[in-house]
Amino acid sequence: MFHVEQRSRWIMLFATSMVSFMSTLDASVVNIAIPHISRELGVPMNQAEWVVSVYLVAICALLIFFGRLADQIGRIPVFQTGTLVFVAGSLACGLSGSLPLLLGARLFQALGAAMVMSANFGIITEAFPMNEHGRALGLNSTFVQIGNIAGPGIGGLILAVASWHWIFFINVPIGIIAFFVGYRIYPHDPVNWSAIQVDWPGYGTFALTIVSFFIAIYWGQAAGFTHPGVLVLFALAAALLVAFIVIERRVASPLIALGIFRSPGFTLGIISAMLVYMVGYFNNVIMPFYLQETLALSSATAGVILMAVPLLNMVSAPTGGIISDHIGAEKVSFYALFIFFIPLGLFLWASPTTPLGWLIVGLAMFGVANGAFQNNPMIMGGAGPEYQGIAGAMAALGRNIGMALGLSLATSLLYWGMSRQAGTRVIAYPHAHPDWFVNAMHFSYWWAVALIGTAVLLIGGLLLYRRRSETA
After folding, report:
1. Distance CA 255, CA 201 (A)
2. Lowest CB count within 10 Å: 235, 243, 302, 317, which one?
3. Which domain holds residue 35?
4. How far apart are CA 372 and CA 369, in angstroms?
5. How many CB atoms lie within 10 A of CB 204?
């Protein structure tokens, strides 16, 4: 644990969380700007959507590498370097005038985001004493979760007054300020470059696993999941995953110390967080369509309504963090999962004749549940002190895989539901039959209910295991 004064710790937490917020926001804020990017750059909508996919997949492929690097040379150098790379990538994204340039800039931006995400939780747990971890990580979770769920709302507000380029430009001044605040507060320990040991076979296998898996998903969405090429890629990803585990068991300095997964709190925390972030992306995909296409609201109005989620999240996340310091993150998260059923029930019932106020209530309750779910304290608390860097990277990896899977699953379910009613393949909003979209929306949210139900069983099982261990 490095020494930081009490006041400086909280300033450091704010600076760290602001960069975390931006890196997470940029995974979701682009969704609502895709039609604008498509029109201005003169590319089809499905190609413009690569701007979202490339960012998420690149982060997933890079996180573990930088998490291991942060454990070896220190989390602060990795985080601060990542902040500068992310700012430069954001500037390049905003200046891009063609799709290839924008995709290249998004890859560079993802490089910085992966460095930031892999180190931020470790910095916080190292700076704060154990009895303040819940509060500190809860506040950080507020920024991270708001970044994840506020994208459509913030994006809608920006697009109402400026071009899509400003979705990226806005990161530049905030990132620079956060970097210099951190530079003044963080300890400046020398970097021991000789400590770096890279498990290249393990990392190469892991990165290929991630890339193969997500190419299979995105290809499957376009060509169907029974396409021979898609099935081959899924099989390749599974084989590479097995090879990765074999490599990690044999190398002297593995990329991931597999012993970390022996902790039920860590493992189940990662899986349940992934499920919750998947459900969060159902809202990011479905609600902008529903508000702007079905209800014919402007992007500005839709953005204001969608802000109900992050606004309530801002209150519930730190509150949940404080409570978790007293009763444990697992219990708080378990209770929070049941709150999710209230908004999901409202979304299952919603129709164009439903008063808009009920939809806003549902989004607000979703923000309460999402904020109260204490995935970060649960995951970091389940890992030992020597694993904090890689544990933070794994937490971010679970979050980003959840977001990527949520994007793919929600989109696939939505279009499959509409295609089933139309009797033919539907890959766009059916303006002549809005009822097809509403029914497909209800069908998709039933899957969201099932995902939250699975998370309830996992965390409930963990609590039962802990109780039996304590009484044994």
Report:
1. 9
2. 235
3. 6-197+253-471
4. 5
5. 14
